[in-house]
Amino acid sequence: MTDREWAEVRPLLPVPAWLQGRGGQPEGYCHRQMLDAIRYLVAGGISWRAMPADFPAWGRVYAFFRRWREHGLIAEFHDRLRGKVREREGREAEPTAGIMTRSRCGPPRQSRPPHAATTAGRRCRAANGTS
Hints:
Layout: H1 3-9, H2 31-44, H3 58-70, H4 73-88, H5 102-105, H6 120-128
Helix pairs in contact: 2-3
């Protein structure tokens, strides 16, 4: 995460209770490190358990992600960074149009043609070209 991205996202993060004088233990991980781990996971398309050892344990990263998602922070991070990228490209921060795919507009398609084999024996004969 770049310093500019971090400057945009940092004010959105919740302040831990112990910093506000409400008690509790200090957190053992830096929020920036947690966000970097989440971004790595999304960019690489890996599973939580495949998190590299350079990041905190996957269970801790997932706990932070889940807590932030429940409070709507993940969507807010995305929206704010997307807005900054759009502004940098000379466009409005919020998109003004959407794309609708045909699958949502038209009638549902059949999952298979009506002549498709439906039992194991028929499928086997159909694949082999025998009757």
